[in-house]
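Need tokens for this chain, all 157 residues.
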Amino acid sequence: MNIENKHEPENKRPSEAAIELTLADDTTNDAPTGDAPTGDAPSGDSPTGDYTMGMLCHLLSLTQFLIPTGNIIGPLILWIVKKDQDAFVDATGKEVLNFQISMTIYALVCILLFFVIIGMLLLPVLMIVNIVFTIIAAIKANEGQLYRYPFTIRFIK
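Here are the structure tokens for all 157 residues:
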């Protein structure tokens, strides 16, 4: 791509000079033409729907740091309200709830293991894993992809 710079007469100050950029035709340009999107399209197995609500469903699980059991209550409310209206939010809500219920069970096991010291080590690791996977899932949901959390017990099918 060739770029040509054309300046106004040199008697003007540079701040007053208008710079016009013109693109010359380039025969080696392989860029796509038309209105076709250039980004990644959602995967074929993901239902279509409101990706922002799907992302919000994941991010609502972070309310656990403000409200006890908020990691389950927040996504549960959004899922109940939107599951019949949006297939993407329905699938995302089920996945979030399964993961957060699993994480709650794992946290309870860590608390029981406090008596043998290992719970003190595992609980912070579990919290970090929960935050990292939730952020990854929220990003994927915003891109229109369903994210399957690892280490999840599938309670809701």
